[in-house]
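Good morning,

Both structures are done.
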Amino acid sequence: MTVLVAVLLCASGCARLKLSRRLMPTPAGIAVGLPHPGGEFHEACQCADDEIPIFIVSGRNLESKKRSPDPFGNKRSPQPTLGIAYVNIGKGLTPEQLHQQTVTSKKRKRARVAFKRIELSPALENTQPWRVKDDVIRHNENPWVQAVSQRLAQSSQRNVTIFVHGYNTDLIDNTLIAAEIYHYLGHQGAMISFEWPSESKLLGYVADKGNADYSTRHFRSMIANLAKECDVDSITIIAHSAGSPIVVNALREIRLLEHDLSADQVQQKYRVDRVVLAAPDMDLMAFINAVHDRFHEVAGRVAVYASPKDRALGLSEKLYGNFRLGRAVDKLEPWEQRVLEQVPEIEMVDASVAVQEYHNLIGHSYFHRDPWVSSDIGGFILGRTPAGRNLVKQEGEVFWKFPKDYLERLQQRKSSTEKH
């Protein structure tokens, strides 16, 4: 029981009421100087004393008497609440110092990510029209929608990145992670944190899974309206753990509702470009069913990161009695393997070598804590192929793997780039 509790505590990845923490480890590709979605970071690092907006779409209930920077409870809300959280990265550092902290390979950094405040926006007058197969623009006068549009207009890229959190988390922790991701995207476009109603407690796992199911329609509605309401060119989705089935099921529902559109047409309509499913806490066969229903056709590409060393999902498998997608390495049935082999738009990545290299006890939060995996996610977002990201795959296998000499290969690629 002691081990079980320790696993659950560590798997949550959440420090209650802690308003700041050190900046995440630098993705390995950035540390060696390879191109990354964040570019050279010089512009992003000019704002060490500024407050960075993270747009919030929350399915949690509001607690008016709560004395906390987090105004939300842990129950469901029938309609999503909109807001803007403000985060500071690197306060007290010069732009040059923040840039050095951003690109350094040192694990312990001086730069901190700090939650400052959240401002709630007026509710949408009518969220029921947030539906699929509707081209009418209704919310362009809403302050939240206008703020997203303004952020996009000020950026060189009209891209929206959406972070979908996992189990046992709260607004503050999720906002800090979203801000770190946004920092390593060079503050380009707009960042949204989709706050589905986690119970935010150790023993809330079963309730959280039910809340995630409930939140699928909220997420689907958001995706269905971002492109038309905010004039978005592209959408990137990064989902972790229990947040992954929300994304998969929402895209699956969109594809089924838009069955009369071709894959190109549905992508043009919803503008979803890249989807990352990191350590997905999802039934493996349910994922295969979603593939059959062509959920991936709503997106340009999908990357699934899994590891048999993920102890948190190992516990989930024991609770559910079936394989989880985030531990699917070496567990695919021949027919499941054939299904995935026929869908080149889905990239399956075995992160276990990366997890082992960084000696992560639980092996569940590697998407932003492990420099190899975060580096690969950056390359995926840039549009590089798995081979172009230095991953390897044996003939007849479904999963791409990190080679043991992954870091050396990155350095060699950097040297080769400089020569040309």
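Second structure follows.
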Amino acid sequence: MKKSEILTTAVASVMSLAMLVGCGEGAATTTETSSDATAATATEASAPAGPTFKIGAIGPLTGGAAAYGNAVCNAAELAVAEINANGGINGYQVEYSKEDDELNAEKSVNAYNTLKDWGMQLLVGSTTSACSIAVSEYTKADNMFQLTPSGSAEDCVKYDNAFRVCFSDPNQGIASAQYISDHNLATKVGIIYDSSDVYSSGIYQKFTEEADGKNFEIVSAEAFTQDNNTDFSVQLQKAKDAGADLVFLPIYYKDASLILTQANTMGYKPTFFGVDGLDGILTVDNFDTALAEGVMLLTPFAADATDDLTVKFVSQYKEKYGEVPNQFAADAYDAVYIIKQAIEAKNVTPDMSVSDICEAVKGAMTEIEAAGLTSAKMTWDANGEPNKEPKAVVIKDGAYVSAQ
């Protein structure tokens, strides 16, 4: 290679990495403070020369679902740093960038286009279902490989280039009904769900179908929408009057925190049981986390697990980001390593086209068996769905602990 070519390559790498901003909570990727600029300078100084794999991530880094997006962003960043420190992927270093979509589908598409302009070759995202579905229309058109860590709606993987790490909504609904029945958690169940959200309504539908014939009875099922999600007294009163000893909440954590607060005011103390959308409830501003004591949720990750991988991940995550990682973080961490394994299985190199990389990686996905934080054994079908075992956690003394 000529000296001029070497210089051009190095400068391009530096300029690419200059676009990276640390994934602090609430930080948007398009804004750089003076402290961010200092960090960027340090990053540029160690910018790799030559071809690199470029992995992008999208999630709500600001707004009501920021606990999800920042967890995904932080964990993906952590995984990339580890991979680079251990020699990269197939001998190539990895560059990483992320964008904030503010839990808005249109902004998620804008984020995708920004990352595409940056040179993204593989996408970890989007974080939430509606945003992931919107972006998948564009990754399909570009034939870019998309692995959502946490987009659980069925349509998130409707195209053959899209896969997921988490369970789908139907699987979460089915698994929740089975878990409640198998562990004799209730005789009468009330449900409060968001009919305006595909995530919530999809889980609700499958839960009710699976509950038929189980050892509990659904005695109330009340909906709300994002236009009327501040007063849940009617839904709670109906569950209470019907004698529900467990209330199933297939919803996001912010709404759930209001429900728990209002239930406490009413003196209603059933078991509350949710799915991965409740992961983050301990981070809600001005919420009395003591009210979450005993709340159960179906999730593939428990931060208190004692296996070596979890202990190492939790320790490193806490040291770098100052908080205990949630299930979304674990999904994203696994996602990056799954991409690494798939790339290595097909000897993919970063000089290949986005489309050729996608074809190779999606072919590998149905052949590999991955072990990670969220399961000791993960395989994928061609429809993008993972095969792994569900787990449940319960909140005790302000922390998630295994319910097993």
